Amino acid sequence: MSRLISLLIALLLALPVPSLAKDPLAAWKPAFDPSTAKHKYILSCVGHPAIEGVAVGYRIRDRVWKETDGRLYVDFRPLSQLGGEKDVIRKLKLGAVHGMMSSSVAAANLAPELGIVNLPFLVGTFDQLEQFRRSPELFTPFATAARKQGLRVIDFTGYGSYGWASKVPVTGVAQAGEVNFRIAQAPVNTDTYKAWGLKFTVMPWPDVPQALQTGVIDGLDHTPIVCNISKKFDVAKHFTRLDYAQGLYVHLINERWLKRLPDDLQTILLKVIEEESAQTRKLTLAQQNDEIIKAQKAGIRFYDLSDTDKTELIRRAEPVYQRWGSKMKPGYLAKVREKLQ
Asked: Domain range for residue 129?
């Protein structure tokens, strides 16, 4: 027995030692020493900085450092380093985390008004998104919706236009009825898919790859940027462009923490967030176009839903508009529909 154990140990020692995994965030490390900062802004996001709407956190970090002469350090933590979105939202309310770039689907759990950007064919295109952001009468109720919980929306970036990635071609609503779509764990999405009469499965994002491979789902509700970067197109080789909603990262901040920050630092931080967010929305449009071109070159087929089918989906979603409109401030949804449609 002792000889056998000795032989096994010798064999194990002879095996090559695997190299340590590379740091996925190595390329985004700061070019300065953040330990000298008097103030720190802890900012969380679940996304990967390969997405422009996430990488903005690092651009904000570097600009704030420079413009505050190193007094304020934006400690940006993407890739769910601080936990899942529900957990981080709880920490944000308590002040353990100071800021969060929340997905729009998760932000809707904080206040009904934050769900307005997820309602179908309302803030669906990049142009509608900019019109929504630049209009104080539309953006202000959105920005102040979570103030009762001590939170404020400063701005938002995004990850592109929502559509359907699928294993089989989907060129119309009838074909969509044959697909089981994965949707996010969000109340607006659930209500929308029920109203549309489509099959769906609510599923955490980490479970999607295996579910696609095994056939538990055969489609997903997401954007071309995310589907291509995260390799979902390796299995779901068709994409139907709906442009029914924009995937957003909503920049939430704990107001109690913000008010404790010196006035000049508050001004710089808010200015930088707004300016970098606006620039990043332009970069997101460019990135979406680039990712679609890359995907098409790799053999992914893209389809456009007809105006007739879009009109039918809007008709079916009318109960969703009514239900969510009744939860919001009186007249808010009607005003957004009037301005953007």
From this structure: 35-340
